[in-house]
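Subject: for your reference before the review

Hello V.,

The reviewers asked for a structural picture of the protein, and I figured it would be easier to keep everything in one thread rather than splitting it across files. Below is the amino acid sequence we used in the manuscript, unchanged from the supplementary table.
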Amino acid sequence: MQKRKDLTIDEAIRDPMIRLVMKADGIDPTAFERMLRSRAAEHASDDVLPSFLEDSGSGRARRLRHFAKPFGEASASW
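And here is what came back from the structure prediction:
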């Protein structure tokens, strides 16, 4: 099973720490939930790929190598 790092909308709305911050900031939980669900619906209807996924050719590989270079080559020793 793949682990995810982000909370779902339901988890975020129920999270006690988020609720405390919303209360301290005067945020209406119902309005916040509506906003999150609205943005999620807009995002789900977007058919546009992020620019880094549009180019699957050598340009993308070159950009990925550029970002990976500082990390060096991976090696495993057993």
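For the response letter, the relevant points are probably these. The first helix runs from residue 9 to 14. The radius of gyration is 20 Å.

Happy to draft the paragraph if you're swamped.

O.
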